[in-house]
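Before relying on records like the one below, remember that each one covers exactly one chain. Contacts with other chains, cofactors or solvent are not represented anywhere in the record.
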Amino acid sequence: MKRQLVCLAALFGAFAVGAGTASAAGDPRWEETGTAYTDTLGGGQGLASRADGSLLYRGLADIPLDLRVKGWNHVGDPDIANGYTFDAYQGPDTATAKMFAVTTPAGKRYEYVHQLNAGEKLNNSFATVSPDGQWLVSGEWGDQNRLQVFPAPVLNPSTPQTGGDLKEAGQITLDKPVRDIQGCDFVTETRLVCASNDATGSLFPQIRPLLQVDLPRKLDGKPVTGAVKSLSALPQRSVCTGTFETEGVDHDVNSGTLRAQVIQPGICALSTTVYSYQQVTD
């Protein structure tokens, strides 16, 4: 399917722009600036912006056959750094490892397998690379007090250059628990924005919140603590009723655009809405 409007909800895409997200004094806020749509099967798991401003989408239909044969049956929210594409893969419930695939600008793919540590969940929801290209951050499903940090495959010289084993570095310990993080992306060297699919309202007042994680310093492979706060609830707009699902998030460093995906409910689930934001200062 082409990445286009595939649900009647597209007819109603021109809703009024929201009032923006709450922010602390002195912090710019994210103001919603538009909506777009992609087909869920071909792009509903995540997205990443290329240097030329175009978007790379990932969906379950994008998993290469050879990786499916190896048992990698889920792809998460991707990232692009220095022209390299980073994909997060996970296997079945019995999996004892997760995998990050790196595709070079020339189209060559290398596979980096991380054997699960004690207590580590098999989920591999997303991959995001630090602005200096040296560290890859990922996350697990459910209730978590951490984000995982790995040397960025290929780009970090401590990793094998053509695939192989990938060991974890120092983690980001979160000062507040988070739930069901579907994607994160760096906005600055010390700030990430993450999309949560938590619909309970028990951890943060908002439903399916957009979260901000602030670090005291840029990542260096050593343990660090991140300060978490909720920015706003992600929109849940559709002509269909039922359960929405938050998916990937991306920050385009060139345009400053932040994008977040929400799969629509019911029969509109074939369509994923992509909400765009820009930072504004009051």
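Residues 65-69 form the longest helix (5 residues).
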